[in-house]
Amino acid sequence: QVQLVESGGGLVQAGGSLRLSCAASGRTFSRDALGWFRQAPGKEREFVAGISGSGVMKKYADSVKGRFTISRDNAGNTVYLQMNSLKPEDTAVYYCAANSANIVMGSYDYWGQGTQVTVSS
Length: 121
Description:
- 0% of the residues lie in helices and 50% in strands.
- With 121 residues, it is an all-beta fold.
- The strands form 2 sheets. Strands 2, 4, 5, 6, 9, 10 and 11 form a 7-stranded mixed β-sheet that branches.
- A hairpin with a 6-residue loop joins strand 4 (33-39) and strand 5 (46-51).
């Protein structure tokens, strides 16, 4: 059974940092693109960052460029999101996802349950 489990969310003050992790299991994900999305209350889910299976290609939403960094472990089954200089507008539920076609900006097949990130001003 395929599972993606996020961890690392929490409450942080503006300007602080958090590191999200997502562990994928049930099959190998080393050839999948992995991504992070977020959904704030009353808003649609949006793409935050994505990384290709090889780890070479990385994409970021304009709103997080220069502040967030996506990476994955060598085995390819864990993806991380290092979030620095957090702002109150970063408050959202963060989801990780996998794209079996390895298209970073494509449609994602598998989703985690989400982890809450709250940034206080």
